[in-house]
């Protein structure tokens, strides 16, 4: 029979907490008590469990990774993958392991995220948001479990969040086109009820109004962040003339789909229609022409999420929000004729 920390405590006539402190070398335990407990551990060959090691420190060094809501078709979007890879590497260097949760049924009783955190004695959680977030995410947010959200505003007593400053994303695109005398601009967003996409759409509309550019409602389309939806949205815009002179898609994947539709229609990019995406995924560098984009600093977002969560867990910082500035990256798909030679292949 496998011994437990309670068995060792009973043999030594001490509390389980005392045994845990001796195992973890924490607290002020008398020499004789420590010697007695260590002798029993040695004689019995007791191997402390994970729970025993964490009992005295009250920390498990485990982080929950929550893919909340409907997360972009099995969460295969390159942007999120790169953010999580940066988070995973950084949080590992800080001494934590990751336990991945999904929003599938946790048990027959359908326990929620907060119950899971308590069950696994997690130190904290990173919450990466999709669409249609479950109520249990917000219950977790309002608890005392330290949480950091990526692309979701968490406002609980022990919660912070980090995201790209999405209000600036479309502003950079519209400004670029305006400065190069391009005013017939279309927009392809994510789902109609997508929080992030709607922030970008609102930024697009605000910037168009700010520069006095007329908005064509027929050129505002919606997709789901993936290539097929960008292709279909662009096809719909090309059924009637005049065509837009430029298209801003709220994700690179949709921009690549739009690129395919434009080419199939016998039009040229950027000569006939200029194209800009958002995210700066790796595929942007290998499309033909190479895809201009608004870069989200995925490495920075992932690292910030890790350090913010570590600080919350250790009481080193108050809950906060960080908005990461986007960066406009001009490549072949939106270059001016005079720029094409210098940008080609970048």
Number of strands: 12
Which descriptor suits the 3D outline?
A: elongated
Low-pLDDT stretches are 340-346
CATH class of the largest domain: Alpha Beta
- Which structural class best describes the helix and strand composition? alpha/beta
Organism: Sediminibacillus albus
Protein name: LacI family transcriptional regulator
InterPro entries: Cro/C1-type_HTH, HTH_LacI, LacI/GalR-like_sensor, Lambda_DNA-bd_dom_sf, Peripla_BP_I
Domain HTH lacI-type: 3-57
Quick overview:
By secondary structure, the protein is α/β, with parallel strands linked by helices.
What are the SSEs and their pairings?
Blueprint: H1 5-12, H2 16-24, H3 31-44, H4 50-55, E1 62-68, H5 72-75, H6 78-93, E2 97-101, H7 113-119, E3 124-129, H8 135-141, E4 147-150, E5 159-164, H9 166-179, E6 185-189, H10 195-210, E7 220-222, H11 227-237, E8 246-249, H12 252-264, E9 274-279, E10 292-295, H13 298-313, E11 321-324, E12 327-329, H14 340-343
Parallel strand pairs: 1-2, 1-3, 3-4, 4-5, 5-11, 6-7, 6-8, 8-9, 9-10
Antiparallel strand pairs: 10-12
Helix pairs in contact: 1-2, 1-3, 6-13, 9-10, 11-12
Supply the key terms.
3 domains, 6-stranded mixed beta sheet, Rossmann fold, 14 helices, elongated, 6-stranded parallel beta sheet, alpha/beta, 16% strand, 346 residues
Q: How would you sum up this structure, described in words?
A:
With 346 residues, this protein is of the alpha/beta class. The protein has three domains: 5-44; 62-165 and 298-325, 3-Layer(aba) Sandwich (Rossmann fold); 166-295 and 328-343, Response regulator (Rossmann fold), CATH 3.40.50. The protein has 14 helices and twelve strands. The chain has helices spanning 5-12, 16-24, 31-44, 50-55, 72-75, 78-93, 113-119, 135-141, 166-179, 195-210, 227-237, 252-264, 298-313, 340-343; strands at residues 62-68, 97-101, 124-129, 147-150, 159-164, 185-189, 220-222, 246-249, 274-279, 292-295, 321-324, 327-329. Strands 2-1-3-4-5-11 form a six-stranded parallel sheet, with helices on both faces. Strands 7-6-8-9-10-12 form a six-stranded mixed sheet, with helices on both faces. The chain is elongated, with a radius of gyration of 26 Å. The relative contact order is 0.11.
